Amino acid sequence: MADRYGNDVLSGDWRKPKNGRTVEVEIEKGMVVEEPTSGFVGAIVRWEHGVVDLEDRFGKVRTYPLGPGFWLDGKPVSLKPPKKAGPAKKRTASGSVAVDNVRAKVARASRIYVEGRHDAELVEKVWGDDLRIEGVVVEYLEGVDDLPGIVNRFQPGPGRRLGVLVDHLVEGSKESKIAAQVTNRHVLVVGHPFIDIWEAVKPSSVGIKAWPRIPHGQDWKKGVLQSFGWPATDQADVAAAWKHILSKVTSFADLDPALLGRVEELIDFVTLD
């Protein structure tokens, strides 16, 4: 008997386009697309630095890399930013348009807090030009165990917003439980999934295949150094390793999109006033 179901349109991987083709589409604000792997459907609200933010009907926002892997009107598409007319513009390390002969603003009352020195140095290297133009100061906390108390001492309010970037902010983590205690509407706490900010640097930029997995309970940074065969005796060795890693970061393209979107979100939040 002949196979009556040989042409079943649902057979195989339905997410793959026919003939392996994906149509390129220039994005525009308000365009509704689906990311089929997660099933998330949302309108495009922002795009920058190789990532796009989608907002669903409940107001939840997720960030995805631009490119293939989306559906539009039931068809697979590759999202790309719209063409810009005119000559190429000079860009900062964050991908923003560079502005010449503009003095840094007087520091705002609003601030961005990050967990440690390395976080602050990475944010400064990539977003420093943008932050100076906006008058935003970044400070580091040496951990977030006392985050609710830190927020209270900062006394956030209108014109005095606080943005906080937290490492390893994933469901069920210690950090997520601490962040949930902050409910002031003038404070925005966001985070990335990495155990340490080092992991936010793309492995390819550092010249490695992947960041190693370090057993729970072991000092993560020293474990990384040991796995690479680098000196890992004291904090001087850690500092030297970070200096090497940071030297490999020249722009936003060297960072994981999971960090890019969160830092941009904080900058937008603290400059709304």
Outline the structure in words.
The protein is of the alpha/beta class and 273 residues long. It has two domains: 23-80, SH3 type barrels; 111-271, no CATH class. Helices cover 26% and strands 21% of the residues. It has seven helices and eleven strands. The chain has helices at 117-134, 147-154, 174-179, 203-206, 220-228, 235-247, 257-270; strands at residues 23-26, 32-35, 40-48, 51-55, 61-65, 67-72, 75-80, 111-114, 137-140, 162-166, 187-191. It has a four-stranded antiparallel beta sheet. It is globular and about 55 Å long. The protein starts with 22 loop residues before the first strand and ends with a helix. The model is unreliable at 1-20 (pLDDT under 50). This is DUF3097 domain-containing protein. It comes from Kribbella pittospori.
Q: Quick check: average pLDDT?
A: 84
Distance between the termini: 72 Å
Helix/strand-derived category reads alpha/beta
Low-confidence stretches: 1-20
Largest sheet: 4 strands, antiparallel
Count of alpha/pi helices: 7
Beta-strand percent range: 15-25%
Instruction: Kindly state the percentage of residues in helix.
Output: 25-40%
Number of domains: 2
